[in-house]
Amino acid sequence: MKRKGFTLIEILATLAVSSVMFVAIASVFYSVYVNWKKQKDLNQNTQAARWAMELLGNELRHGNITCFSSSADQVYFSRGSTCSGGGNWQGVCYLFDGSANILYRCERQHGSNCAESCDTSNPATSKVKLATSVAGASFAVSEGDMADISLTVRPKPAEPEGEGNRNITFETKVRVRN
Question: Residue 107: CB partners within 8 Å, gap ≥ 6?
Fold first, then answer.
């Protein structure tokens, strides 16, 4: 007697082979997705850091800077009247928060001096987050009116640099215009 169809053993064997193939294909897709997401996040952080460097450089190059000063983690300057206050001036500060790995741009209209633009606890100071995943930033004044700016981003800035967590550093020199 000839039977049509498949035996239970044949169906189970086919199901087992298909399951193994499905798991293998799914793991490949998951691996590709994870790597794509890491690369996308790194690209976004890198673009944000480039944009922040460009913004700071342009503000220093083209601004009507009346006061310029920096420390290791911040650079501040004023536009308008004088650095010591009085008149109509705008204080601008780029501030690196190492504990949160964020670069901020702070701004304040009027006050006693332009350094107050870095006082983020003051409600008169507006604060904008420019870049995240910032592992380091340095601001220095050299050769008269030259500003040395360095910004380093890393996918996981709280962790040390290593395989899969490489630094990307942007550096520029800007002549401050007044």
Answer: 90, 91, 92, 93, 117, 125, 126, 128
